[in-house]
Write a structure and sequence with these properties.
The chain has about 180 residues and is mainly alpha-helical. It has helices at about 10-30, 40-50, 65-75, 90-120, 125-130, 140-160, 170-175, 175-180.
Length: about 180
């Protein structure tokens, strides 16, 4: 029994080709860009939702934001897809979705770091202990907030130190090493 995929890649390719023809025609006639067909939009939504349930993305509280960012990026870069270059639109848009997720995660980490820095700068003791309070308040919550802020700072610094930039050489350079050397 053949496993059914949630997106038919060939039908997706045909829909993108038809949309591309419509866009080029509208551009040639100096008309407004046509609306993306529902089928293509549904494919973007399915790709984003399925990728969001992968193990490396499922536990984020801002998963819905990740999905929305991914769909937005797919719509932005839909005109860059060319069936002359690739016959696999599923892979192309999955890659766009994946990197949109990574950008959202990085953005959320920066915002979280900013929140913790703000909490760290507050004088929480004076906020909790008001004038006229006779009772003692446990300092566990204050210590928890300070610990979270310091942990976030260390994680951010560790990430900056371990970030690697991926540099890719064109394939023709790898094949012809001997001809390129001087």
């Amino acid at each position: 029994m053949k496993k059914e995929h949630y997106i038919d890649n060939q039908e997706f390719l045909r829909a993108l080709d038809k949309y591309g023809v419509d866009v080029r025609r509208a551009k040639r006639l100096k008309q407004e860009k046509p609306q993306v067909p529902n089928y293509i939009g549904e494919c973007f939504i399915k790709i984003a939702n399925h990728l969001a349930y992968k193990i490396n993305f499922i536990n984020y509280s801002f998963r819905e934001d990740m999905v929305l960012d991914a769909i937005e990026n797919c719509l932005i870069y839909i005109d860059n897809f060319s069936s002359k270059k690739s016959k696999n639109p599923f892979a192309y848009f999955t890659q766009i979705t994946y990197y949109a997720f990574l950008r959202r995660i990085a953005k959320e980490k920066k915002q979280l770091h900013t929140k913790y820095k703000y909490i760290e700068s507050l004088d929480i003791d004076s906020i909790i202990h008001q004038v006229g309070d006779e009772g003692e308040y446990p300092a566990t919550f204050i210590e928890y907030l300070k610990k979270q802020a310091s942990t976030a700072q260390h994680e951010l610094e560790a990430e900056k130190n371990t970030e690697k930039k991926i540099t890719r050489k064109p394939k023709y350079m790898e094949k012809n090493k001997t001809t390129l050397e001087v």
